[in-house]
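stage 2 :: seqdesign
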């Protein structure tokens, strides 16, 4: 299936978004021509920056029980796998929308609108997700971001030339979701009294790390010798995950989430699953991921 692509730009950045999943497909920094987004090589990982809705991570038994019925649910929800419609475009902003339809209702029996607003401000991309409850009942949902940033930034560097940096000292407490991608009720520390994490072939050998209770406002991927960086504002998110494929990373995902996978001993009942928000009919809720592409 063919999907549309739309480009916005300013003096600093050129950003391309695909209507397939409302994903940021490309972010090029104009001063040096660096492409910062993973280009979805299907032999490694076939996405750029999926948005996770109506849940982040897995649900128990791949099933949502809602409104008296069971519905099949894929990991991270369906929004990343569907066409989103163009609502508005200006030179430096773009609005796409996914609304409930027969395809979504086969997986999730709620009426909704999911609006993605992309805006450029200097060297920063703002991606706002707005959920509107158009159903007659309350709408519980989970949501999160999953952008994949390509490394190295150029052919003169390797993955070993990069590290993750917090803006404050941290002892990152992680919630264990191994081995099935469901919460196990166990925790571990990714480090003690650190402000950076080396990026190497060992970091993701057990899959992702789901950090909680962070003090930092930002988490970024930094090129050690130049200071070039991709920096995500994580201050408004209760959970931040980092992930890549095992081995030497070709990309690193920084994933701010507002909700979590299901507990492995939990329930498939949608009303019993912890949510990012629960909206009354007619209500709406928004969150914004701000990503700075710094030189």
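stage 2 :: out
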């Amino acid at each position: 299936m063919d999907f549309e692509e739309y480009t916005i730009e300013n003096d600093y950045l050129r950003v391309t978004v695909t209507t397939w999943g409302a994903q940021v497909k490309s972010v090029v920094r104009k001063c040096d021509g660096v492409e910062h987004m993973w280009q979805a090589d299907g032999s490694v990982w076939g996405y750029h920056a999926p948005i996770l809705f109506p849940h982040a991570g897995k649900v128990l038994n791949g099933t949502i029980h809602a409104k008296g019925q069971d519905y099949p649910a894929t990991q991270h929800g369906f929004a990343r796998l569907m066409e989103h419609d163009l609502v508005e475009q200006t030179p430096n902003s773009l609005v796409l929308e996914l609304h409930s339809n027969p395809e979504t209702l086969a997986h999730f029996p709620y009426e909704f609108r999911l609006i993605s607003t992309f805006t450029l401000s200097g060297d920063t991309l703002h991606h706002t997700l707005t959920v509107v409850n158009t159903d007659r009942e309350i709408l519980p949902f989970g949501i999160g971001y999953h952008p994949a940033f390509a490394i190295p930034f150029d052919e003169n560097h390797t993955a070993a030339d990069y590290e993750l940096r917090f803006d404050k000292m941290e002892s990152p407490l992680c919630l264990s979701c191994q081995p099935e991608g469901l919460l196990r009720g166990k925790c571990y520390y990714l480090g003690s009294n650190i402000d950076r994490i080396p990026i190497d072939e060992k970091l993701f050998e057990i899959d992702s790390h789901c950090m909680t209770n962070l003090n930092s406002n930002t988490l970024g991927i930094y090129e050690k010798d130049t200071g070039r960086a991709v920096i995500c504002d994580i201050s408004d998110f209760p959970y931040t995950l980092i992930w890549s494929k095992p081995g030497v990373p070709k990309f690193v995902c920084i994933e701010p989430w507002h909700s979590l996978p299901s507990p492995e001993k939990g329930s498939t009942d949608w009303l019993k699953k912890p949510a990012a928000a629960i909206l009354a009919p007619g209500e709406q809720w928004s969150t914004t991921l701000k990503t700075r592409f710094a030189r």
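stage 3 :: structure notes
- The chain has a mean pLDDT of 97.
- The first helix runs from residue 102 to 105.
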